């Protein structure tokens, strides 16, 4: 029995016992600062001599480009989108994450199955169906959940990237305009992530303090994993 | 989310299954002609036909990037798009939807590639249950005789070359499709597939199909529109 376990059946032809690295997941809402913290974490890990691979949604060689192109149109249905993301996830898991773990890397992943499951459920998928779809995922060593309130998130998004069609759940049209839809969509996502935090044992990190303080807190969570890595 | 067996639609869904070379597409085309001659509105839906997903599938196959899991998931994504766009809406409109390959193709191929049978059945739980699902049963040898004469070559994934069963394409095809047939045979009872003996004459097989389909047509509205025009039908020739 390996150190890594799976939620369900697991991938054919992968022996989880030979995976020596560490799998660190950073979860959180759109615009909460996940990529900033992953960048800081990467520098810190590398300066301590750990090899790092970072990966995130829509970056797969197989499905990344097509998924982004599909999102440019207006015809991508909820089920199709969920499964396109699952394809992208599986391709990265098999071709990036697992080989890196086999080689002893620390893998930092910007989101994981949790966000994907939450988005699918909000778009009408059955929770047990989507859990079944993703049950081949490896159980991470740690899930850092960057927690934010919808109010803080809105302020942050206005000042940075602005409101985006999909991050506002505009395919669901949850409000009269993009702002209203964003607030309702993110409120639903956060509710799902908060529920999953208990269910899957996330380490919840409050993001209302400074970037430095949040980063320190994340490092303290991850440090114990690195002792024998 | 409505699941397999739970869709309540006025249309009818007729699907054909079988390995390459079983003659299922020929039979489906003949069935469509017959239905149209009776003024039924039909809609043909092909496997691997989603415009949104096709490019990724094509690249994955061409560059041989697909593993059993991603092969399974990319086809499920394609199928989801087909379901949301080309299967459920025409069925709700009361059409006869004819599908060349359906979820059973995925169950047979993916399981033959080592994917967990329960996992893949759950993956496709959103699919509409067909009114009638035909399975064209043929031996690997008969299928090979038809393919080798008729087409350029057997493709890499079709031959299961990714499974490294043999370095010889023909031998690999024989072994892999043999495993696929084994999966189809197991599904006959599980899903109530209607078996057509594909070694019979084309006319006999078509007769058998029509006899079965006629029992499912009562109450279906006839339409004067001959065929639903769809880019999928014309794009068929371009598919990888």
Care to describe what's here?
The complex is a heterodimer of chains A (229) and B (240). Chain A is 48% helix and 12% strand. Chain A is of the alpha/beta class and 229 residues long. Chain A has one domain (20-226): P-loop containing nucleotide triphosphate hydrolases (Rossmann fold, 3-Layer(aba) Sandwich). In chain A, strands 2-3-1-4-5 form a 5-stranded parallel sheet, with helices on both faces. Chain A is globular, with a radius of gyration of 17 Å. The two termini of chain A are 18 Å apart. The model of chain A has no long low-confidence stretch (mean pLDDT 90). Helix content of chain B is 49%, strand content 11%. Chain B contains 9 helices and 5 strands, in the order E-H-E-H-H-E-H-H-E-H-H-E-H-H. Chain B has helices at residues 24-37, 54-62, 68-92, 103-112, 117-123, 140-150, 169-191, 202-214, 231-235, and strands at residues 12-17, 42-46, 96-100, 132-137, 194-197. In chain B, helix 1 (24-37) packs across helix 8 (202-214) and helix 2 runs antiparallel to helix 3. The two termini of chain B are 31 Å apart. The model of chain B is unreliable at 230-240 (pLDDT under 50). The interface between A and B is large, with 37 and 34 residues.
How would you sum up this structure in a few lines?
The complex is a heterodimer of chains A (229) and B (240). Chain A is an alpha/beta fold.
Question: What features would you highlight for this structure?
Answer:
heterodimer, A: 229 residues, alpha/beta, 5-stranded parallel β-sheet, 8 helices, 5 strands, 48% helix, B: 240 residues, Rossmann fold, 9 helices
């Amino acid at each position: 029995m390996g150190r890594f376990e799976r939620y369900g059946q697991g991938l054919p032809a992968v022996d989880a016992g030979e995976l020596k690295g560490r799998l660190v997941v950073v979860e959180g809402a759109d615009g909460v600062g996940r990529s900033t913290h992953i960048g800081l974490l990467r520098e810190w890990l590398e300066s301590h001599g750990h090899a790092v691979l970072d990966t995130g949604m829509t970056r797969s060689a197989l499905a990344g480009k097509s998924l982004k192109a599909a999102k440019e149109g207006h015809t991508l249905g909820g089920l199709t989108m969920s499964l396109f993301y699952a394809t992208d996830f599986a391709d990265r898991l098999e071709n990036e994450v697992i080989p890196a773990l086999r080689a002893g890397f620390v893998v930092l992943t910007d989101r994981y199955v949790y966000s994907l499951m939450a988005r699918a459920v909000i778009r009408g998928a059955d929770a047990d169906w989507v859990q079944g779809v993703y049950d081949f995922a490896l159980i991470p060593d740690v899930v850092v959940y960057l927690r934010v309130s919808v109010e803080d998130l809105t302020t942050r998004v206005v000042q940075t990237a602005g409101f985006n069609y999909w991050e506002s759940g505009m395919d669901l049209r949850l409000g009269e305009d993009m702002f209203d839809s964003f607030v309702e969509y993110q409120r639903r996502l956060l509710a799902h992530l908060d529920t999953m935090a208990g269910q899957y044992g996330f380490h919840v990190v409050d993001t209302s303090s400074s970037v430095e303080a949040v980063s320190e807190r994340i490092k303290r969570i991850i440090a114990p994993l690195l002792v024998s890595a | 989310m409505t699941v397999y067996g739970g869709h309540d639609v006025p249309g009818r869904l007729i699907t054909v299954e079988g390995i390459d070379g079983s003659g299922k597409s020929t039979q489906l085309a003949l069935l469509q002609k017959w239905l149209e001659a009776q003024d039924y509105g039909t809609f043909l839906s092909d496997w691997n036909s989603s415009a949104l997903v096709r490019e990724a599938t094509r690249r994955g196959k061409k560059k041989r990037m697909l593993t059993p899991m991603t092969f399974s998931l990319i086809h499920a994504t394609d199928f989801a798009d087909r379901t949301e766009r080309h299967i459920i809406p025409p069925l709700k409109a009361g059409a006869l939807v004819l599908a060349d390959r359906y979820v059973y193709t995925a169950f047979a191929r993916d399981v033959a590639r080592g994917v967990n049978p329960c996992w893949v059945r759950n993956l496709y739980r959103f699919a509409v249950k067909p009114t009638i699902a035909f399975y064209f049963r043929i031996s690997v040898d008969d299928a090979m005789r038809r393919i080798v004469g008729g087409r350029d070559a057997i493709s890499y994934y079709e031959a299961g070359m990714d499974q490294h069963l043999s370095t010889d394409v023909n031998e690999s095809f024989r072994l892999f499709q043999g495993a696929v047939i084994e999966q189809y045979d197991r599904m006959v009872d599980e899903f109530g597939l209607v078996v057509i003996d594909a070694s019979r004459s084309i006319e006999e097989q078509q007769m058998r199909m029509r006899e079965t389909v006629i029992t499912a047509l009562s109450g279906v509205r006839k339409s004067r529109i001959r065929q639903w025009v769809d880019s999928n039908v014309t794009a068929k020739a371009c598919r990888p």
